[in-house]
């Protein structure tokens, strides 16, 4: 278990927006594969089994993100964004294997928010894929009906995320209180 203090949510949001600005991404959906490659990170899609969505491996200043190709595309996008978060925020200090490789995994426990680094990576991934200003603008531009699942599906489709991820993001941004 980590003893490092967590970054404030505002700092995680700021860092995600900075990454988008650095590469001049200004509208959804965010091309996370492009962002990884632009940072010199190779993406490999492979079958990791049911218990692992992704992995970040660093060695000798190079990085590879492994993504479970069996996951749905929206989950693969979130996984790449999650691993990018580890790359951007954590400097490879989370998991060490025999001192030769620094490895960070995205597995079922990553979503639980039980580790500081995992919680931050999930927050960063949400902020990267669904930047607050973009979500607020889209939410206000398009009539949103809480009783109609179609509204949520349309918004999630625009950002190429799952309806569950969009629902969490709307709640975290307190936009559901406005609907």
What do these coordinates show?
The chain is of the alpha+beta class and 179 residues long. It has helices at 9-22, 32-38, 73-90, 116-129, 132-141, 149-159, 163-172; strands at 41-46, 54-59, 62-68, 96-97, 101-106. The chain has a domain at 9-129: Arc Repressor Mutant, subunit A (Orthogonal Bundle). A five-stranded mixed sheet has the order 1-3-2-5-4. A hairpin with a 2-residue loop joins strand 2 and strand 3 (62-68). The chain is globular. The N and C termini lie far apart (39 Å).
Count of DSSP-assigned helices:
7
Distance between the terminal alpha carbons, to the nearest Å? 39 Å
Major β-sheet annotation: 5 strands, mixed
Mean pLDDT: 85
Poorly predicted residue ranges: 93-103, 109-113
User: Could you spell the SSE succession in H and E letters?
Assistant: HHEEEHEEHHHH
Level-1 CATH class name of one domain: Mainly Alpha
Q: For the largest beta sheet, what order do the strands appear in spatially?
A: 1-3-2-5-4
CATH architectural label of one domain? Orthogonal Bundle
CATH topology of one domain: Arc Repressor Mutant, subunit A
Q: What overall form do the CA principal axes indicate? A: globular
Share of helix, binned: 40-55%
Q: Helix- and strand-based class?
A: alpha+beta
Q: What's the total number of strands?
A: 5
Rg, alpha carbons: 16 Å
């Amino acid at each position: 278990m980590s003893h490092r203090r967590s970054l404030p949510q505002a700092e995680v949001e700021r860092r995600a927006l900075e990454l988008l600005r650095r590469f001049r991404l200004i509208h959804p959906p965010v091309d996370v594969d492009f962002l990884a490659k632009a940072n010199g990170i190779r993406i490999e899609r492979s079958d990791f089994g049911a218990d692992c969505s992704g992995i970040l491996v660093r060695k000798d200043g190079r990085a590879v993100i492994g993504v479970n190709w069996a996951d749905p595309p929206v989950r693969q996008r979130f996984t790449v964004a999650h691993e990018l978060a580890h790359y951007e925020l954590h400097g490879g200090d989370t998991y060490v294997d025999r001192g030769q490789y620094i490895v960070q995994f995205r597995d079922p426990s990553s979503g639980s928010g039980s580790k500081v680094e995992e919680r931050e990576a999930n927050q960063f991934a949400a902020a990267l894929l669904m930047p607050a200003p973009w979500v607020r603008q889209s939410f206000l531009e398009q009539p949103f009906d809480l009783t109609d699942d179609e509204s949520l599906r349309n918004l999630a489709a625009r950002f190429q995320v799952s309806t569950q991820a969009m629902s969490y993001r709307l709640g975290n941004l307190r936009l559901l209180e406005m609907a």
